[in-house]
Amino acid sequence: MLRNLGRTALALAVVTTGMTVAAPAQAAGPLIVDISCEPLSRLHVLCISTVSGGTAPYTRNWFYNDRYFPSQDNKTTTSWSCTPSGPNKYTLAVIDANFQIAFDTTGSGCNSGNP
Fold first, then answer.
1. pLDDT of 25-35, one tens digit each?
2. What pTM was computed for the model?
3. Which residues, including other chains, have CB under 8 Å from residue 15's CB and lie 6 or more apart?
4. Are the C-beta atoms of residues 58 and 32 closer than 8 Å to each other?
5. Do residues 19 and 95 touch, judged by C-beta distance below 8 A?
6. Which of 19, 38, 41, 68 is deepest in the core (most CB within 10 A)?
């Protein structure tokens, strides 16, 4: 699912990642981001991202329940804790070499039952 972030989010992403401004490269179509998350164990979720279009290199910024986690930057696959009672909202924001921005958000519950 393609979604565009506002200018404030772009500024935040540039500042928090320390990304430098360079001459734009030739774009290869619109930037598209897709993430899917599945329960990995009772209290963990595995998220896998796919990025297409746009122009590499890509900068990936992960968020859990709208909180930015710089330790997860630029990972294509990541594991997260989750709470059985929720909410569990996972978001990936991607910026390409031409400063196109796209993001995807998904929710995933934890496995129920004993560990």
1. 565 799 999 99
2. 0.71
3. none
4. no
5. yes
6. 68
Strand 44-52 relative to strand 32-41, pairing: antiparallel
Cβ count near 50 (within 10 Å): 12
- DSSP codes joined into one string, 45-76: EEEEEEEESS-SS-EEEEEETTEE-GGGTT-S
16 sits in which H/E element: helix 7-17
Cβ neighbourhood burial of 32 (10 Å; 0-12, 13-18, 19+): middle
Here the tokens at position 86 are 């929720």
Residue with structure tokens 């506002």? 6
Query: Tens digit of pLDDT for each residue in 48-106?
Result: 999 999 999 999 999 999 999 999 999 999 998 888 877 789 999 999 999 999 999 99
